[in-house]
Design goal:
It contains 14 helices and 13 strands. It has 385 residues and is an alpha/beta fold. It is globular, with a radius of gyration of 21 Å. The N and C termini lie close together (5 Å). The model has no long low-confidence stretch (mean pLDDT 95).
């Protein structure tokens, strides 16, 4: 039996959904195995659920945090597990981290098919020519690539990956799980009304984010304060998440006397979907975001979206005036303007329906089709048992 390994730093619901789709679409006689480096990644305290119990996932350091692992240990463990599994194909998450490079080095040495899985785009950070040159050398060591969407494809081409070897739909979530759960909440919201911010039935904007600088939450709070200054009976703001900037954000709300802001903490799936289901619209204000899977989640729950124009998902998923609005994340007036526009729009329900239509083309099955197409470019013959 041939083996295919899909590697990520850790496994959460996103990875489980993609792995399952690849297992279900795998050619006969091919085993697909998930490979996680650590049990957790900082800022994403996922609970172990039952969803992936029937899937094979090898975790190198199940009780440790990804960013705290010494590079030498990661490198040794990664190359050791790949030698043990002896896959014919390796799907490698990114190219910049120690585990990614160790996997690439092993697969290249063993002449194993190498599929890069990436969501990097050109405007993620200031680019320096010599670093880009080094990066292009790494990219060219992969046989093919599976990327997020149009800006990610363009960046891979810029780095030297041939267009015919690039496939998109990397960034997906389990749409059906979110949609069905949101419908159940809307049919009977009473059990969720005790959650912070949901006890009040007035409409609200929803944010789900880590509390770090690039997520741009201080500017969003400023924009929301300006919006409420002009609309005293406007929508509320509910913010999900946690992170090092939480104290600063709470102080900003308190000192500025910003009304109707609820910090609801980090929520696991069942409670998270309740917020999506009962929100009026979703807001993603990040200054820099390679993709932003929370946009997928919100759309799968039938929400209109207000999205920073620098967020990767915005390019392909947010259609201006159809399922939401885009804004300049550096301009408070731009952000405040779309808050007001959404809250007063008579087309919100139609926008939510349009979100469902758009996201229906970004599913785990689409990820699997793209992954197997990326394998076929170079390595399909290696899968023959």
């Amino acid at each position: 039996m041939s083996r295919v390994v899909l590697h990520w730093p850790s496994f959460g619901p996103y990875h489980t959904a993609r792995l399952r789709a690849c297992v279900e679409a795998a050619p006969a006689g091919v085993e697909v195995i998930g490979l996680a480096v650590a049990g957790q990644v900082q800022g994403r305290p996922w609970e172990a659920g039952e969803d992936g119990k029937d899937l094979r996932v090898e975790t190198l350091f199940p009780d440790e945090m990804y960013h705290e692992l010494p590079k030498a240990r990661v490198r040794q463990a990664m190359q050791g597990i790949l030698a043990e599994l002896s896959p014919a194909v390796v799907g490698i998450s990114g190219y910049g981290m120690t585990d990614s490079r160790a996997a690439l080095e092993w697969a290249r040495r063993k002449r194993v098919c190498r599929v890069m899985m990436t969501e990097s785009k050109a405007d993620d950070a200031p680019r320096v020519w010599w670093k880009e040159w080094l990066k292009s050398r790494l990219v060219r060591r992969f046989d093919s690539a599976l990327c997020g969407g149009s800006p990610h494809r363009a960046y891979l081409e810029q780095l030297g990956m041939p267009p015919g070897r690039i496939f998109d739909r990397y960034d997906v979530v389990d749409n059906e799980r979110f949609r069905a759960a949101a419908e159940r909440v809307r049919a009977d919201p009473v059990p969720y009304r005790q959650l912070p911010g949901l006890e009040d039935e007035r409409p609200f904007f929803l944010v789900s984010s880590r509390f770090i600088a690039r997520k741009n939450l201080p500017r969003l709070i400023q924009a929301y304060a300006a919006y409420r200054g002009d609309h005293s009976d406007g929508w509320r703001l509910v913010i999900l998440g946690t992170g090092p900037d939480e104290g600063q954000l709470r102080s900003q709300v308190e000192s500025g006397r910003v009304p109707d802001v609820t910090f609801a903490g980090f929520q696991q799936f069942e409670s998270l979907v309740a917020y999506y289901a009962l929100a009026g619209a979703f807001v993603h204000p990040a200054l820099q975001e390679q993709w932003g899977l929370v946009v997928n989640e919100a759309m799968a729950c039938g929400l209109p979206v207000l999205c920073s124009e620098t967020v990767g998902a915005c390019y392909d998923l947010v259609r201006e005036g159809e399922n939401g609005f885009r804004f300049d994340p550096g301009e408070i007036s731009s952000m405040g303007g779309v808050l007001a526009a959404m809250a007063t729009s008579p087309d919100r329900d139609a926008m939510g329906q349009r979100s469902l239509e758009i996201i229906s083309e970004w599913t785990p099955a689409d990820f699997a089709r793209s992954f197997w197409a990326a394998v076929a470019v170079e390595g399909e013959q290696r899968l023959i048992p």
